[in-house]
Amino acid sequence: MPKMKTKSGAAKRFKIRAGGSVKRGQAFKRHILTKKTTKSKRQLRGMTAVHSTDTDRIRAMMPYA
Predict the structure, then answer these.
(1) b (16+ CB within 10 A) / e for 24-62
(2) Which of 7, 9, 35, 36 could form a disulfide with 61 if both were Cys (CB 3.0 to 4.6 A apart)?
(3) What is the C-alpha radius of gyration for the chain, rounded to an integer number of angstroms?
């Protein structure tokens, strides 16, 4: 059986934490920022957790993570 490949797009977007949960970056922070308030842009900083219902799907895309 050949080795399973990691989906490279998922590897760039997600990181698996030690406890098994998945973290991701926030969306809506790339462009068209002039109409967004400073507060909303500040709250989009940093990483957040992927919802538990999507975790299994992302783990399947990254078999060796």
Answers:
(1) eeeeeeeeeeeeeeeeeeeeeeeeeebeeeebeebbebb
(2) 7
(3) 15
Q: What pLDDT is stored for residue 1 in this prediction?
A: 87
The CA angle 55-56-62, to the nearest 5 degrees, is 90
Which of these, 4, 38, 10, lies nearest to 24 by C-alpha position? 10
CATH level 3 topology of 8-61 = Factor Xa Inhibitor (4.10.410)
Question: Of all helices (H) and strands (E), which one includes residue 30?
Answer: none
Structure tokens at 65: 């993570």
